[in-house]
């Protein structure tokens, strides 16, 4: 992405990154699934590559450091103009900072944090690397959603840190907040109550656009992954919840035209 590209409004999910044990096998899986190609990225936390689709940067994959307790999960990075100030606010609002802030070479300044419910997310202050390009195309991340026990407990945290405007779904049996910036939805918070997976706890879910959800789900199994929730129609289109061979969970979706 060039310097002339538009800078993301603070709070916008601008990047997704996955920390794994097996870099080569993971690149093979996502390369075969989404058609990604890879090139080296900043190495501040160890070996790291950026995934490209038709020459556009769409995601990152890094080697999981043995001495750091980072999740084997897709993690969204939220844009900021000042990573250090954002980290201070995260701590003041009850969150925890696990890594950083630190400089990622010339690309930008980053931190990894968790909200009061324990869901992990990144913070990205861009310099040369502004984030995802080629948005909306098959093989790119198109939505990020926080899955947590209830929206009330963490909604105010994200609103305080990133100044989102919240729009709640008015329903007796559906606890959902959409987070808005500049009048547009950028992320969601889904309160699932007792349905929250005990083995994962609160977590962010990344949605990747695909042309055919059913074919993609079958392909994931062929490549050694797993289908956790079969393809179904939902609020974002037809979707399926899946996991890669190392167990990192994500959602594939075919968005409505």
Could you please describe the fold and organization of this structure?
It is a single chain. The protein is α+β, with helices and mostly antiparallel strands and 257 residues long. It has a domain at 13-126: 2,3-Dihydroxybiphenyl 1,2-Dioxygenase, domain 1. 17% of the residues lie in helices and 43% in strands. The chain is built from four helices and 16 strands. It has helices at 23-34, 83-92, 151-162, 213-222, and strands at 13-20, 37-40, 48-53, 56-63, 74-79, 96-104, 108-114, 120-126, 141-148, 165-168, 175-181, 184-191, 203-209, 226-234, 237-243, 249-254. Strand 3 (48-53) and strand 4 (56-63) form a beta hairpin. It starts with 12 loop residues before the first strand and ends with a strand. The relative contact order is 0.16. Mean pLDDT is 91; it is low at 1-5. InterPro entries: Anthracycline_SecMetBiosynth, Glyas_Bleomycin-R_OHBP_Dase, Glyoxalase_6, VOC_core. Residues 12-126, 140-255 form the VOC domain. It comes from Streptomyces monticola. This is VOC family protein.
Largest sheet: 8 strands, mixed
Kindly state the mean pLDDT as a whole number? 91
CATH structural architecture of the domain at 13-126: Roll
What is the CATH first-level class name of the domain at 13-126? Answer: Alpha Beta
Protein name: VOC family protein
Pfam family, one: Glyoxalase_6
Domain VOC: 12-126, 140-255
Organism: Streptomyces monticola
């Amino acid at each position: 992405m060039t310097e002339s590209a538009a800078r993301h409004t603070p709070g916008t999910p601008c990047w997704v990154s996955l920390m794994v044990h097996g870099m080569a096998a993971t690149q093979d899986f996502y390369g075969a699934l989404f058609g990604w190609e890879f090139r080296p990225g900043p190495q501040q936390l160890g070996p790291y590559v950026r995934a490209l689709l038709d020459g556009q940067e769409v995601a990152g994959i890094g080697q999981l450091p043995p001495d750091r307790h980072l999740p084997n999960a897709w993690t969204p990075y939220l844009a900021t103009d000042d990573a250090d100030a954002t980290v201070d606010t995260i701590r003041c609002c009850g969150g925890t900072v696990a890594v950083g802030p630190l400089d990622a070479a010339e690309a930008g300044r980053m931190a990894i944090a968790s909200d009061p419910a324990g869901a992990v997310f990144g913070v990205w202050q861009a310099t040369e690397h502004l984030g995802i390009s080629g948005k909306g195309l098959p093989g790119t991340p198109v939505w990020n959603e926080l899955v947590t026990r209830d929206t009330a407990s963490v909604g105010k945290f994200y609103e305080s840190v990133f100044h989102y405007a919240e729009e709640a779904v008015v329903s007796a049996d559906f606890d959902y907040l959409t987070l808005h910036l500049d009048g547009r939805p950028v992320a969601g918070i889904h309160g699932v109550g007792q349905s929250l997976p005990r083995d994962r706890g609160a977590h962010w879910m990344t949605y990747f656009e695909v042309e055919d959800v059913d074919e993609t789900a079958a392909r994931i199994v062929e490549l050694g992954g797993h289908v956790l929730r079969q393809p179904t129609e939902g609020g974002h289109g037809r979707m399926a919840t899946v996991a890669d061979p190392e167990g990192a969970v994500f959602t594939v979706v075919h968005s409505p035209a």
